[in-house]
Design goal:
This protein has 18 helices and 30 strands. An 8-stranded mixed sheet has the order 2-1-11-10-12-13-14-15. A 7-stranded mixed sheet has the order 7-6-5-3-4-8-9, with helices on both faces. Helix 3 (61-77) crosses helix 4 (94-104) and helix 12 crosses helix 13 (318-328). It is found in: Cell membrane; Peroxisome membrane. This is Long-chain-acyl-CoA synthetase.
Length: 595
Amino acid sequence: MNFISRIKREVGFTIALKRLMKNVEGIDRDSDVLIADDIEASVDAHRGNVAFIFGNNMQTYAEFDARANRIAHWALGQGFQAGDAVALFMENCPDYVTTWFGLTKVGVVTALINSNLDGSGLAHCLNIASAKAVITSADLARRVAGISGHLEGKPSLWDWDGVVGEDLNSALAGLPDERPDRKHRAHLRGHDLFLFVYTSGTTGLPKAAKISNMRARRSFRIGITTCNLTDQDRIYITLPLYHVTGGFVGLGGALLSGATAILRAKFSASRYWDDVSDHGATVIVYIGELCRYLLNQPEHIKERAHKIRTGIGNGLRPDIWQKFVDRFAIPKLLEIYGSTEGNVFLMNFDGKIGAVGRIPKYLEKNFGDVRIVKFDVVSEEPVRGDDGHCMIADLGEPGELLGRIDQNGPSDFSGYHDKKATEKKILRDAFEKGDAWFRTGDLMSKDAEGYIYFNDRIGDTFRWKGENVATNEVAEALSQYPGIETANVYGVPIKGTDGKAGMASLTVDESFDIDGLKAHLAGALPPYAAPVFIRIQPEADTTGTFKYRKVELVKEGFDPSQVDDPLWFSTAGSDAFEALDADEYSKILGGEYQF
């Protein structure tokens, strides 16, 4: 990069950062301005604008507000008070947003339940929120009714369709559409609860993260700042609204700017470009695996016939970033980093491929609340020096990303409904006696220019042959091989060996040929990082937000008696993968092969 380019980059970075700081100015824990006030102000400024497009239906901001007001009056009629919790269990639709907006007008906390849940997982999420009612739709209401005997507090069931639970549409029909008196939320402040948003549950049952009004007000402004949103934009949201990327960054940016949110109940790769083109989307909200799924689709006649000027999201891996931009003619992608419950937020303002954010050296003092520390992947703990304190990772060295906890500032950490789970995420006495830091659980690295890169999740990185293996690095190498659509990489133990051997669960198309895979990996990875075992699944096992599930895969390992899918393995010195059956499995356990 030449001198002029560097100057332009720094000027652009500074302008974007100042714009973000200005947009969040005055948002603090003691502010009496809440997220409901922000949205009502936007409604008043854009009453005639289209708030939502859903299928062939449109809803203006005025209509959206009126329906939410009926929800608020319904909640008051049920006797709900500020601080009470109501669970929302629905797929994406305008009434999803209407419901939590109406509830927050009177201070009621909404628990956003993953619409894929059923059985014990669903009961768990409803119970930990102490929900007094569940609002849902006919198809999902049946799931709630099926677990009613396991629900604590016996919450009432309200069905928009009136098929299974009480008829919510009928209950709203006679209620006023004027805003309820603000006195119902007047005593609340920025630190008070707005929502419960649940973690994905990739390694166990979901945890309910507490989202304050202050946190939501800041998060809702991210899209406005980074994408320069106006009331003329149309934002396509196919990610679930029960999570932060779709529900806060995408939807929040639309609501506070007066833009139009184009909603789809669920992601559809085959319908994606029809929706984007037909509805005139100007902004898309993505996660990395969504982009990967689109790249794996056959060419679509409308995939470049669109008005998209930018995309915002997270998890876009370097191996597909440029491919996605080039194939679909997307002028700019803005990668962000953050977690549902965390206090660390990073942003890639200039589109540097692979980076999740940047903290240049001249701003390190301003970002002293974010640090990357040396990490031991075996103990899964930060490394401490002779003085007992954590040590800053070297440039290029993967380490855990930490965020200082300041409960009186923007880097607060509300934690989870479960206090024990909250404490597990806090690292104490990290750099000085009495300090507290949020553990992101992510291994990151930083280069000389301050760009920060995601390496792996803690627990995903494993040790083999005395070396650390980053699952994301292996997955990227696998994705470059013809015919591999998705790659989920994890470590599995082999009896008689130290550490964990690499295993990859793949989804493939008809062009996949395993005969050339070993040679490809030999050229793309160091020997210790190449997977020892391969499993071919008919489809990837993911959460509702496309995060790979690994717990069951690790448990099943490479045991043919536990796995119905095709299995393959490769020994040390071998130039190919061989089919793994019961006999070969016994030989592996008996130590007859060298790995």
